Automatic annotation (TrEMBL):
Gene3D superfamilies named in the record: alpha/beta hydrolase, Electron Transport, Fmn-binding Protein, Chain A
Any Pfam family hit: Abhydrolase_1
InterPro entries according to UniProt: AB_hydrolase_1, AB_hydrolase_fold, Flavin_Rdtase-like_dom, NADH-dep_flavin_reductase, Split_barrel_FMN-bd
Domain Flavin reductase like: 253-397
Keyword field: Oxidoreductase
Mitochondrion recorded as keyword: no
Keyword Lyase among UniProt keywords: no
Stored PANTHER family: FLAVIN REDUCTASE, FMN REDUCTASE (NADH) RUTF
GO molecular function annotation: FMN binding; riboflavin reductase (NADPH) activity
Name under which the protein is recorded: Flavin reductase-like, FMN-binding protein
Organism whose genome encodes this protein: Hyphomonas adhaerens MHS-3
Length: 401
């Protein structure tokens, strides 16, 4: 066991422990309100023995973590704490969280935080749970309070209800919801209503346990958790071998983060055409060359191959709708997209992060793609914007630590 400290929202120090090898898939354990990380003792041990790297932390104002000087225990502070912790981790963990911790995890991951975790396990974390029951001292190991009394005095559970429900509908990653059948926090009906918000969720009920299921029946909870992890977030990395499933190779290539571009030109009738491409790279500075790869199945391929001039428009973070538009076939892509003719006549998308005007230099066969190499004759860029990124099949944005 190694002590760890994370910097939470507004610099609040969040203390915890790490178990196992950092090279193993990570699991982050978040306790409920008025609890501490000690509730995970047996679960952490089971996860490490199963080959997982485990980190558990105390939430702000709980256990050994800092009691914030500004007294902030509003829901937003807990959500931002978790986002900060996830951003400081070396890999995307599966988040396992109970009651209030589950609320914070749902909001953090559902509100544009999908890139921060590989999966989510919630324990009795319905939005309309009995928060007072969750924080009763008799529910704590040994019945001893280990938290700042200001937490229960100032935290407003009503502020979290709608936000958690809305965020749940945005979560696409694998989710497991676990409930103790004897729990006083909520009933099965409330749990089923909440599960309807998720797209990719499983449900498990442990009959012999109440709301402290991870501590009361750690054996059954750990077995349920490990079964979910091995099926949905397996320990061993997928492997591609020549001749096997091409999707696995595509997923492996998706581990290389790229920017997103729209390649444009004029067809023989002088009409603008374009398509989204993330296979783009610089080739040479002398002469100034770049390349893009265009699928042979693309409807605009013939026009791209015939054109003497074309442009590559690098998109910024606010142009995700433009990327989606130019990725769809049969769309009138330019009618609602501001653009202008460049020096060589090729369409330049207005407001792009960068525009490269090119003269066709060479065409090469590239399997199921054509490699189009262009000589850059003019380029301009916007230094104050951030790029739209693409990683593992999803749009991303830069995170500055």
């Amino acid at each position: 066991m190694q002590p760890v400290i994370f910097k939470g929202f507004a610099g609040t120090a969040l203390k915890g422990d790490a178990f196992g090898s950092p090279d193993d898939p990570a699991v982050l354990l978040i306790h409920g309100g008025a609890q501490t990380r000690a509730v995970w003792d047996d679960v952490a041990d089971a996860l490490v023995r199963a080959g997982r790297y485990v980190i558990r932390i105390d939430m702000r104002g709980h256990g050994e973590s800092e009691w914030p000087a500004d007294g902030r225990y509003d829901f937003e502070s807990f959500v931002e704490d978790l986002r900060a912790v996830l951003a400081q981790m070396a890999s995307r963990p599966v988040v396992v969280a109970a009651s209030l911790g589950g609320w914070a995890a749902t909001a953090a991951l559902g509100e544009e935080g999908a890139h921060l975790a590989a999966g989510l396990v919630l324990i009795d974390s319905v939005p309309d749970m009995d928060f007072d029951a969750a924080c009763r001292q008799e529910n704590l190991p040994g019945g001893k309070p280990c938290f700042d009394p200001a937490f229960t005095d100032t935290f407003d559970p009503e502020a979290a209800v709608d936000r958690v429900s809305s965020a749940a509908g945005q979560i696409k990653m694998p989710v497991l919801f676990v409930r103790g059948a004897k729990s006083e926090l909520s009933g099965a009906d409330e749990a089923n209503r909440f599960l309807g918000h998720f797209e990719n969720v499983e449900y498990a009920e442990i009959r012999e346990a109440g709301q402290m299921v991870a501590a009361e029946r750690a054996d059954m909870f750990s077995a349920t958790l490990l079964d979910f992890l091995e099926r949905r977030v397996p320990r061993f990395a997928p492997e591609y071998r020549q001749g096997s499933d091409a999707r696995t190779l595509r997923d492996a290539l998706g581990c290389f983060a790229t920017g997103v571009t729209v390649v444009t030109t004029l067809d023989q009738e002088g009409q603008p055409i374009g398509l989204t491409a993330n296979s783009f790279t610089s080739v040479s500075l002398e002469p100034p060359l770049l390349l893009v790869c265009i699928a042979k199945s693309a409807g605009s391929l013939a026009a791209m191959e015939a054109a003497e001039n074309f442009a590559v428009n690098v998109l910024h973070i606010g142009q995700q709708p433009t990327s989606n538009l130019f990725a769809k076939s049969g769309e009138d892509r330019f009618s609602g997209t501001p653009w202008s003719r460049g020096h060589n006549g090729a369409p330049l998308l207005s407001g792009a992060l960068a525009n490269f005007e090119c003269r066709r230099f060479a065409l090469h066969d590239g399997g199921d793609h054509v490699i189009l190499i262009g000589e850059v004759v003019r380029a301009r860029f916007e230094p104050r914007r951030d790029p739209l990124l693409y990683f593992r099949g999803k749009y991303r944005r830069l995170h500055f630590a």
